[in-house]
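Need fresh eyes. Consider my entry:
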Amino acid sequence: MPHIDYYFSVLSPNTYLAGTRLEAVAVKHGATITYKPIDLMALFARTGGTPPPQRHESRQELRRQELRRQAAKLGMKLKVNPPHWPTNPAPASYAFIAAQKNGDGNLGALVHAITRSCWADKLDIADDEVIKDCLVECGFDPALADSGLLEGAETYAKNLEDAVMAGAFGAPFYITDTDERFWGQDRIEDLDAHLSGAL
């Protein structure tokens, strides 16, 4: 049975644009997924990347155009400059970690609900009520937002180390158990093809 480590950021527009296509690919191939929320800005610092607000204006403008085009291709609503971005990613990430450990809802849908709240619904995903609403929407106990905070912080830090060691440097980033690496929501089809034996 194939396995995928999924490194993602609750602040990443491309994690939002990935939707739940990874989960559909996993079901198709009988693959399991370990979800690993990461501090994307810290990952950039560790792996030679530059946070979007610090990039040259020409790079920022292309990013804005590309996000708009990708959202249109996917038929998804996206606010290119959401009002609560960047925000503190830790509370939503910790809640996700608690949900993965203790919950029985839909993890793929939870990633999408959190990122959609930021990039489409213009909400602050550092707000407890926003996080709890996402948990409820995806079949989890909203109390998970207030539980396991120390363990959440430790796992969140470990996920960053795991990402660096595994060769991830952005989000979303997909790594198979055969060390095939796929970066970006626009590479999910390639991951599908790889699991099919075509790549």
About this structure: The mean pLDDT is 97.
